[in-house]
Amino acid sequence: MTDQEAIELINTSLTEEFELDMTRMVPQAHLRDDLGLDSLDRVDMVIVLQNAFKFKIREEETIRGIQTLGEIHAYVLAKLRAAQ
Amino acid sequence: MDKTCTIEFSLEKKLPFLSCLMTLYAYPMIVILTIAGILVFPFLFTAYKVVMRWTHDRIMRALIWLYGRCWIAVMSPFVRFRRQGFDKYVVSPPYVIVVNHYSFFDTYCMALLPFHNVAFAVRAWPFKMLWYAPFMRLARYLNVEDLKLTGTLSAGAEVIKSGGSVLFFPEGHRSRDGRLQRFSSVPFELACETGIKVLPLCITGTDVLFPPGRLSMRPAKICLKALPPIDPPDFEEPNGHMKLRKHVKDLMAKTIAAMQAGQ
């Protein structure tokens, strides 16, 4: 899977799960202020990413600290590279 | 003007007065009930422990259910409570229970359930209410925001293993426009992991009683309806929990619409 494919999968999974507008899924989008995702939604975000990429997320504290969509992209890409 | 119209018009005219009367009555009564409950709690807890020999959390859930029943009695002069479907469908707990969410008082209405051994999975803010928080912790309610996913699934599974049900408001917020909001996947993930049936409950009327953003209360007719429990294995992987979630949400949306239309 290329980085671009992974980013598209992240964006598609999140828009489907949280009923978001794909046009707002830009890397600098703030999870709370731009996409309306709160701390409870982050719990669901873990489920979404685990199911999309078939990996386990044990570092939930890291997810908690993520503020933008671009940081989610970076986190997932780093995990995929580590798995390879 | 026919008689029905006359009666409805007359009630509508009286509503502001009834609302004022109800608000002036209900707030102090709830405070008195809560203080009385806190004072009586040590005696009831000890009595349950000696007679029933239940665990701490189960006793606490029974006492919270009893508190809810007292709240129902207090509100009864102004609120009509009804439940449907429980005799037919609610046969053998435990369940993962999911309920739609209109009002702060939705949790109190869960005392309409015919069983008491229910741990609520909620956000962090109710745990900040100092007069309730110790009892919630003793009842092993789940703070989903602090526990995060793995903690919530683990704690929820423990409740279920000990015979308790776990109740979620999967919307996460009270609806401000009466429509069903996005459902969290967490309760359905728990149901799929434990194999426990999902019990969908639909509540109406609490949005009239005490909606978000309003401090006054209004007379209301509250109905809590149980739908047939749903078996998670019926929803295949991959993403069985998401299929289960969508199915339950669709069912509940149709049921709530029918309930609000008076069917």
Q: What is the helix tally of chain A?
A: 4
The amount of beta strand of chain A, in percent, is under 5%
Helix-residue proportion of chain A: 55-70%
List the quaternary state of the chains: heterodimer
Account of the 3D structure:
The complex is a heterodimer of chains A (84) and B (263). Chain A is mainly α. Chain A has helices spanning 3-18, 39-53, 60-65, 69-83. Chain A has one domain (3-83): Non-ribosomal Peptide Synthetase Peptidyl Carrier Protein, Chain A, CATH 1.10.1200. Chain A contains four helices and no strands. In chain A, helix 1 (3-18) crosses helix 2 (39-53) and helix 1 packs across helix 4. The radius of gyration of chain A is 12 Å and the shape is globular. Chain A starts with a helix and ends with a helix. Chain B has helices at 3-51, 56-75, 86-89, 106-109, 133-138, 144-161, 186-194, 206-209, 240-260; strands spanning 79-84, 96-99, 118-122, 142-143, 165-168, 198-204, 220-226. Chain B is globular. Classes of the chains: A mainly alpha (84), B alpha/beta (263). Chain A binds chain B through residues 17-19, 38-44, 46-48, 51, 57-58, 60, 64, and chain B through 123-124, 144-145, 148-150, 152, 172, 182, 184-186, 189, 238-239, 241-242.
